[in-house]
Automatic annotation (TrEMBL):
Entry's Gene Ontology molecular function annotations: nucleotide binding
Xref: InterPro entries: Gfo/Idh/MocA-like_OxRdtase_N, Gfo/Idh/MocA_oxidoreduct, GFO_IDH_MocA-like_dom, NAD(P)-bd_dom_sf
Pfam families in alphabetical order: GFO_IDH_MocA (PF01408), GFO_IDH_MocA_C3 (PF22725)
Protein name as catalogued: Predicted dehydrogenase
Amino acid sequence: MPKKIRLGILGGGGDSLIGVLHRVASHINDNYQITGAVFNPDFKENIGFAEEIDVPTNRIYKDFDTFIEEEMKLPKEERIQVCSVLTPNFLHFPMAKKLLDNGFHVICEKPMTTTLDEAKILQEAHQKAGTIFALTHTYTGYPMVRQMREMIKAGALGKIHKIDARYYQGWINPIIHDKAQRSTVWRLDPKKAGISSCMGDIGVHAFNLIEYTTGLEIKSLLCDFNYLYEDNQMDVDGTVLIRMSDYVKGVIRGSQVATGEENGLAISIYGEKAAFRWEQERPNFLYKMSDTEPTQIYKPGHAYNSELSLDGTKLPAGHPEGIFDSMANIYLGVAKAIRGEAYNDGEYPTMHDGVRGMNFIEATVASHKGGNVWVDME
């Protein structure tokens, strides 16, 4: 077993959902050891949280700048190798940029930055650094999403006609209708979240899933947002028409005010020979539909699946795997890349996906503000 990779964590302290998701995922395949961190901006809470989760406190730093300064003093064989950025959106760019400039590998939460210009600057920094950069579009780690990608690549659907992706949540619905409450949520604050809430937070996952599974890129889009209240600056619901080409089109539907919805990410891809349907809340079932044959159901862990799918399956067939395992598959791919091992290019989203995501977010905002017009993506 190779020596564990030294992992640093920025953010994700306390009761952060994303924090526990990344910590558990990093441990699942026994590739990483949390070596240092800045979990919280308050140093006392930072130390207390490290003690609570049994991380040694000698490399728990008071702030990010101290983290960089102290780690760079250490010999390379002791220094943290890769750092996970789990902070609110507005901190992703400055932290990732400084990490890359100092030679660290980076695992970053999405959206990668708050603007497309920042994303391009980060891309240049990454090219100069020559290190590994992974963006945690978690759902690309599910075995059946990977199976869908490999089957589409092998021609299972033939020519693709239409794509329908949606991501429905309802968590903002109880908040948005109270003026005092909606002013306290950082995802509704453009200074912290960026220019978009719904498309920037969840719509971009649907966008990424489309490009990841089909291998196609969205060329242009038309977007219509709903803000619900005049004083709310951030979209909480939206519909996006997409064009991959003149004859391949589709729709992305996103909502954070879909009352009663939990984490309803789903995608349907229709081709000339067959179609696929997958839903995140039932991730172990990939449906292949046809006009001439009964519907087929693919499930993880079976020998009929692709190597990429099986590599991301940890348990025998019939044992449910979920979001922690999906994120763990991304961490596994990053570990292979850091160690210079062979890996499939679908094992983790890259800087390219981060730039594409920011391009998508800005294009949706531009389309809506322009009067619901078609906008070309770069």
